[in-house]
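=== RUN LOG ===
request id: a7f3
mode: sequence -> structure
chains: 1
length: 646
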Amino acid sequence: MFLMLAVLLSTEAEATQPIHEAIWHAERSRAAPSAFSEWSVHDNEEVRVRAARALGRLKNTETLGTLEKMVLNDSAPRVRAEAAFALGFTPGGYNTLLDASVAEINVNAPTVMARIYDGLGHQGNGEAVPLLMEALSDRAPADRAAAVALGRIGMSNREAVNQRQILEDLVHALDIRHYERRRAAAFALARIRPTRWAEDIEARVITLAESDYDPLVRSRLVKALTETIEGQTGVPILQSAMADDHIAVRVAAARNLKKLPPDRALAMGSTLLEDSAWAVRIAAAESMLDLGDPRVLKKLITLEKSKDAALQRVAGAAWALVVGYDYVEDWPVDVMAGWLSRVEYPKEADGSHFRPFVFFATRSENRLYRTVAAGRLLEAKAPAKWAVQLLKAKDPVVQGIGISMLGKKPSKKHLKILAETLGPDTKHDVWVAVFELLEEAYTTSPRFRIPRSLNKVLSEAAKNPHLIQRLGQLLAQMGREMPPALTQAPPPAPLHEIERIRVARIHTDIGEIRVELFPQIAPETVWNFSRLAESDYFDGLHFHRVVPDFVIQDGCPRGDGWGSPGWTIPDEVNALHYDEGALGMALSGPDTGGSQWFITLSDQPHLEGVYTLFGRITADSRIIQSVRLGTLIKDVEIERVGPAAP
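=== RESULT ===
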């Protein structure tokens, strides 16, 4: 009987495989919502689940009608849950989510309610707060989702949740021995960072921050007390956190040093700079840097002698704040990069104080210096005349930054200069910057039209198969059509081949990181990561970003965080949880994934539904906690299951 059931399930899966393939192709090409109508009512539950997931990824108002029917009328809880999650990213989905919450009241489907609360959190509407507060006592996983949603709303609308009763209920949730609910409530408090506590509630939070049995709860409560820590009153809280036996709590203490008076910060920071954990040392150094006090900065300058790249960058930044624009020629690269990230030249009315940054951005032989200097110009909103200088740079990233500096209303003169710099050899990242510039210009002024000089060279972008989709989006926004021969993006591998990919073994110079991949949830992302790995793309790259108790990031061919493989892939956001060891795709905006990926060092619920999660580590997490800035990737192996297609 069991054999017969297995055969039936296998036969059904084979029968629906072409449909799954068709849904995926429609999703990745961002097809019109009407293309999914037939699949949304298909007899097969898995087909409907995949259709709902794809509709959410479109983020299109025209999907509302279909998703409403799915979340309110479908008999399968999995379909309703996926449709609810999709509504969280759909403009106008808020009211439908409220209707769905009412419809589910008498239905025993906590997972559906969890996805409804997820959706309400992503919609960010403060009017949902009363409903989410009631849901804190729901069954798992709905209770966790409600608390996370409150934290998410607090990130964008602090006042909507910074209220006595809400804070009291969240603190009360900490007294209930329910693992996920407690952690989620602590997350919400950390994201809200209350500006006003009731005295008794504040005292309770301080006690839990010092003695709770869960280190993640302790660290989040230290973050929640950020406003309380301001001034001398925070010293006892941080002293307790500094002595905690868990790194995450000590990191939270280190990050709050900037809230203390300089003399206290210097004394306590000096202790943390000697901590046995690298994460604590770098968190303390960066927090002390933000104080800007000369006594503290002089202490940080001594970190120049450290052998650690991250600490050297802090030393360079401190030197810039103390000494100014004098630098030492034979500084190590990271010290110089840190100096360049903070140095200020005397401001001049004619803008000549930007000239040194232009020099570093366009003339330096060091790639890191070029991107740091160009980034400073972008951050400072330097006038467009300096952007023109960057357009002529040989570094495509610097060119892209220069394009971004042209602003929301670029002049015809500057667009003409831009057109003169584009041609057959223009890199992918530069074209993407051009598209983003034109999209923003059109959004700012719907009467904007692409000048003839620039319109001619867009034909060069159309020759690049990796740019077809982005170019099509730009033209569609402006009411123009792509030539029929150019509307199809390059096809990836067949879906059934991608779904054979199961494991990535990331070999580093400090050990192996073994990751389970999720091709059925994020096929394009898994396929993209795997083909890069099997072409040895990641071999020899270094982790270029390490944020204590947050993420480690790699996959940048430049090593400065600005690199890409020469193409982008569509987002595949999903409802999986970003707990410790989750593998996600780094982005610089919607649908901009390429080669950069990250692994979370602790639970990070605010990333859920924002960045594509496509894997999770399966072995001991101590290896990811040991990664430092500059840790080397030696090789990435991909493992598959089942036989290859003939």
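=== NOTES ===
Residues 5-9 have pLDDT under 50 and may be disordered.
The longest strand covers residues 501-508.
=== END ===
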